[in-house]
Amino acid sequence: MDRKSLLTFPVAQACGAPGHHHYFTTHRETALSILAMADISQQQGLAQMLLWEYTNPRTKNIIVNIIDGQVFLTDGNRHCVAALLADPNLTFGDLEAARPGILRIWQAGVEAGRNTPADPYDVYIPADIDISRIPEARMGTDYFKNPPAPTAIVPGSFRADSPLLSEMDRGRPLEETVQAVKDFLRKELHSPAP
What we know:
It is a single chain. The protein is of the alpha+beta class. Helix content is about 35%, strand content about 15%. It is built from 7 helices and 6 strands; from the N terminus they run ααααββααββββα. It has a 3-stranded mixed sheet, covered by helices on one side. Strands 4-6-5 form a 3-stranded antiparallel sheet, with no helix packed on it. Strand 5 and strand 6 form a beta hairpin. Helix 3 packs across helix 5. It starts with a helix and ends in a 5-residue tail after the last helix.
């Protein structure tokens, strides 16, 4: 899939990153932050919601990794789920139009003009995901976090929906995550806060 095709691709059909579906639907504060971002997107517009996190698209982006023609979200999961809560018909072109330069596109961990198949990008996934069956996976440090944090690292060619991940940790289509977040919030907001 090339950039032109990606811009017409529905965000809801992209596969989320490993572990995010489970995290978004079991952590109340995270789900509430997604709801708050969706409210901003509905009331003030998608551009305003994205500006909250992506103040400079040259240094912070939504990263899409295309592997075997499938679209995987490497970074930007929380914001994409929030945007889909506000508009379930969103395309990647809508994200780019709202915040020009926000999309970075990889092909199996390779970004045109930046690296090569001989030097693919690392993909950081939550440190508590079992990576023992994934070839070339390792534990490391996410230096993009402040402060730096432990992380699991997999090759950029690794599919987020791989059966090498436990069912709970596999990436799922974002439309499935959006529905699960709605269900979780409906349940949470009708019960007293802990």
